[in-house]
Amino acid sequence: MKKTLVIILAGLAAAAAAFPQTPPPAVRGKISISGAWALYPMAIKWAEEFRKANPQVQIDIQAGGAGKGLADTLSGMVDIGMVSRDIQPAEVAKGAFPLAVTKDGVVATISAKNPLLAVIKAKGRTRAAFIDIWITGKPLTWGQALGTADKQPVRVFTRSDACGASETWAAFLGKRQEDLGGVGVYGDPGLADAARREPLAIGYNNINFAYDAKTLKPIEGLEIVPIDLNGNRRIDPEESVYATRDDITRAIAANKYPSPPARNLFFVTKGKPVKPAVVAFIRWVLTKGQAFVPETGYIPLAKDKLASVLAVLPDK
Asked: What's phi and psi for 146, nearest 5 deg?
């Protein structure tokens, strides 16, 4: 009996060798992506890792602001738009199909050369103080902003391009991007550089353009302005969440940082995605791709949120 069983197993093995199982077809095609600076570093990482298992997929990614990403998507210029703000009903009516893929946040930034740096970091700024800086439009000195006698003017900077960072920061202040005052600067890197170079400047940046990807500390020459959440004119230990990128992302994950300026980040397609390579990439981002989110400086979506987004994708 044993001899017969061995013969049968050997025959099955020989048959399997003669007729090997066909591996699942590899994903092929091209994917074009444009949009939010906020999502750009994460999208680059996802593309690199996805192509390790799918080398026959070509992925082209360009940053240029959330507004550009949405416009490019709705016009059919790209397959996926990166958008770092909520999608408006009017945009959905035009065909925008948003898919949340991760989270991050926006922080206020100043130069490390600011002569009042120690006071700013100790006191922070309240939401009302930020409204005075960006919304009211009245000339403001750092003394007025901090409650001191200093007469040096606050140099206010904002983004010149339509972007999620501005829309999110404005939403934190109860307004829209067009209501933000200040000298307009293009792009996240440009705004960070402006705030870093001018000692009396204040700006705002997406987390991954405010912190160094290697050291995880604020990029050289830049400092983060803490938010005084309880309005007691000092930054309490529970409000001190800015020393490293890990500190601020943990605070966002634990809902200790307000939302906005914390927010979801989206891939947007024109209508429900149907292109096989695009569907495969987005499905991978929402599953295996989530493993790369924390190391890249972002916050994973909750499991129930991921499940709800996956549920609207085509099966293949």
From this structure: -110, -5
| Size of the chain, expressed as the number of residues it contains | 316
The model carries a pTM of 0.88
Residue among 152, 165, 172, 129 at smallest CA distance from 39:
165
- Could you tell me how many helices (H) and strands (E) the chain has, helices first? 13, 9
pLDDT 10s digits, 252-266: 999 999 999 999 999
- By CB atoms closer than 10 A (0-12, 13-18, 19+), residue 276 is middle
Pair of tokens at residue 92: 């959905």
Closest C-alpha among 106, 20, 125, 123 to residue 66: 106
Matching residue, tokens 């959330």: 66
Amino acid at residue number 74: L
Tell me the pLDDT tens digit for each residue of 137-171.
777 899 988 888 899 999 999 999 999 999 999 99
Q: What domains sit in the chain, N to C, each tagged with a CATH number? A: 29-104+263-311 (3.40.190.10), 105-253 (3.40.190.10)
Q: Cis link prior to 314 (omega < 30° from 0)?
A: no
DSSP 150-217: --PBPEEEEESS--HHHHHHHHHTTS-GGG--SEEE-SHHHHHHHHHH-TTEEEEEEHHHHB-TTT-S
